[in-house]
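Why this split exists: single-chain examples teach little about how molecules sit against one another. For that reason, every record in the complexes split bundles all components of an assembly together and asks for one structure covering all of them. Below is a record exactly as it appears in the raw files.
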Amino acid sequence: MNETKDRYGKVVIVSGPSGVGKSTICKEVAGRLNNVYISVSVTTRPRSQAEVDGRDYWFISENEFQRRIDKGELLEYAEVFGHLYGTPKDKVEEALQDARTVILEIDVQGAKKVKRIYQDAVMIFVFPPSQRELAERMKLRGRENGQSAEERLEGASGEMAAAWQYYKHMVINEDLQQAVNEMVEIIQGLQ
Ligand code: 5GP
């Protein structure tokens, strides 16, 4: 499984700490470019009030998640803050066959797995302007899913350290439009 054929789409991996604004940036990018598919992951994490099943994630039980692993239905999966997250394989493959650009918003563990499968996947890491800003955004976001902002901040430090090693592209989300422009340029550069 390697997308060297011309008509094949490209995989773009977007990682970054929780609360950094990955989803907002990716949605804007998808609105600016043609033919972009943003993958919707499955997760065992509880849904927060603001989230919609099938739009933000597919919220499924641990049994259902395990069933999908057993059936080979996930392109990759990882445990993040005590919950499982995975990328549905069929939708990604379908979009690639249709020559679409597929954006995967996934953590560093998942990104490494995807990079082994799709070797020319592009890896973009989104940084907050500062640790302090990230802490503020996490508090504002106030998820009711059991993970504390402290826990997420700790995880964020580890991910940001790994980013320097694995990610070719870095985008700082200080100004949303600038971050969107940078990501659009990176993706356009792939064509
Ligand atoms: P959140 O709970 O804040 O939505 O996501 C927590 C973390 O899980 C984020 O780093 C996010 O990128 C990651 N994540 C979301 N979906 C997936 C997925 O399908 N696979 C992997 N490996 N990580 C994911």
